[in-house]
Amino acid sequence: MKILVVWASRHGATAEVAEAVAEELTNAGHDVTVEEACKVASIEGYDGLVLGSAVYMTQWVDDMRRFVNKFHDELLDLPLWAFSVGLSGVPKGNVQDPVRVGPVLLRINPRDHKTFAGRLRPRELTLRERSIARLGGAVEGDFRDWDDIRDWARSVAKDMEKVSSS
User: Fold this and answer.
1) 3-class SS of residue 39
2) Nearest CA among 123, 132, 140, 110 for reference residue 6
3) CB-based contact 3:50 (threshold 8 Å)
4) Given this model, what pLDDT does residue 3 score?
5) What sign for the dihedral angle of Cα 115, 119, 125, 128?
6) Is the pLDDT of residue 122 over 90?
7) pLDDT of residue 31
8) Cα–Cα distance for residue pair 114/154, rounded to 1 Å
9) d(CA 145, CA 54)
10) C-beta separation of 5 from 45 below 8 A
11) What CA–CA distance (Å, rounded) separates 151 from 31?
12) Could you give the 3-state DSSP secondary structure of residue 94?
């Protein structure tokens, strides 16, 4: 399958997760392109998509919400998987709480959605982001579980095989 992995990140942690997902999909034999959400001009020609966004204030970041709005109708016609990266996270599996994740995921109905812990480097944050992190009791560090990320990507690759054979 020809797969587009689209990411939106404020400080790079989600971009790194997208690269790891793409690497596993490539290892599984898929033709994979990785692109930042704000730079995608077209999704024509792809057999499936993986969308990944950082989560701030319990919602996907603006660039990914704009991407979903721009390509909404086309996204409904393609197999789609999604992941979120953040410290507070969102529910695992099918999206059930539109208040926590925002309506964006409910609008695209991914085949699977996975939440990964993120990374917090206060020196990279804006004053507002640092204040919110401090008020929320966020702890500095990199909490991404690379084994979990790669396991999920391999499960997506297996699901893609099912989709392509049906």
Assistant:
1) helix
2) 110
3) yes
4) 97
5) positive
6) no
7) 97
8) 13
9) 15
10) no
11) 19
12) coil
- Tell whether the model's pLDDT for residue 100 goes beyond 50: no
d(CA 61, CA 105): 12
Crossing angle, helix 13-27 and helix 146-165, to 10 degrees? 50
Can you name the residues that pair with 67 across neighbouring β-strands?
A: none
Q: How far apart (Å, rounded) are the C-alpha atoms in residues 122 and 36? A: 23
**Is 4 in contact with 22 (CB distance < 8 Å)?**
no
pTM of the model: 0.82
pLDDT at 93 over 50: no
Angle at alpha carbon of residue 148, lines to 60 and 132, rounded to 5°: 35
- Taking only the tens place, the pLDDT of each residue in 49-75 is 999 998 876 778 889 999 999 999 999
Looking at the chain, list the stretches that DSSP marks H as alpha helix, in order from N- to C-terminal side. Answer: 13-27, 62-75, 98-101, 103-108, 127-135, 146-165
Burial zone of 101 (CB within 10 Å; 0-12 exposed, 13-18 middle, 19+ buried): buried
Q: Contact, 5 vs 23, CB < 8 A?
A: no
